[in-house]
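quick one before i forget lol
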Amino acid sequence: MKRHWLLFSQVVTVLVAIWFVLVTLKPEWVNRPASLSGLTLLEAAPSATGVAMPGSLSSAARLASPAVVSIATMQAKAAKPDLQNDPWFRFFYGDREDDSPQQGLGSGVIVSPEGYILTNNHVIDGTQEIEVTLSDSRHATAQVVGADPDTDLAVLRINLDRLPVITLGNSDTAQVGDRVLAIGNPFGVGQTVTGGIVSALGRNQLGINTFENFIQTDAAINPGNSGGALVDVNGSLLGINTAIYSRSGGNMGIGFAIPVSTARQVLEGLVRDGQVTRGWVGVEPSELTPELAETFGLKQTEGVVITGVLQHGPAANAGLRPGDLLVSVAGRPVKNVGELLTRIAALPPGERVKVDVIRRNQSLSLEVTPAQRPKTKGPR
């Protein structure tokens, strides 16, 4: 009996070994082919439902995508040029009778169950009608709650129930190299998800907005993505996709998003007060150049030179003087005028804050109480 059992176990071992070799080296001999009109197909083994591939960001896309909407706008009819009736103009350029309303496409993000949507101001600026399409194909006409051209943000509102809402993330903790997804409606082809990383933080001096503090990403962003979501690996909103650097009009791997920290401030201000309240101290800043450093006898290489101080303004009352090199605001360093402008604008009016300056190569700490930033242009 023992001899027979030993023989049986050896046979089974050999068969299992042969099966393993066939599965590894010749799977087509083992898998049962499916025949369809003479076409032979190899069917993969079924996988567990809902299980993502290793490294997949499908859960983040699944969480965030329903809250990203497509925005279609209708602009006023284009005015005919005065030369339209000139015969020479018509000879060279032909008849231009098409003065129909112009349509535009963009994206937006639902940020509250009450129907508030964040998007870019340039998406809805100058439009007559705004139609929002949800990922579940529902449509609604949107009303403009308010806009903030200084940050190129706008807030819309739609009246629908059971709205999907995105979770707001923390852009202040984002780091270069973090994986991100860009979700929007590029070229009007429908909702699209692209992936990449955070390429840089705090981008400014790009000449796009008054207040610039962009997150740079290599996730593909194209026309129509404006106002869409930049999300982290958890599906939380990191920023509002706004602009790209491109020589062709298409993606070149350099896109910019407004951080959610800025977007939240604009959202709350427009919904609560109808405007965005920003800090203002009354200084005229300039970039630190070798010439200015020599003029004011400065040895430092980073900071912003205060070339003018408004009399009786918050900065003057705090003791700031022309020639001071401002190096930090509220404990956060400033390296250029763009950063200083953003730092000051984020200060709550009426709340005292510490600023660090270099005066005649000596460090000083002063306390300034910002006022509300005037709407008219003037010292910052």
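fyi The longest strand covers residues 192-203.
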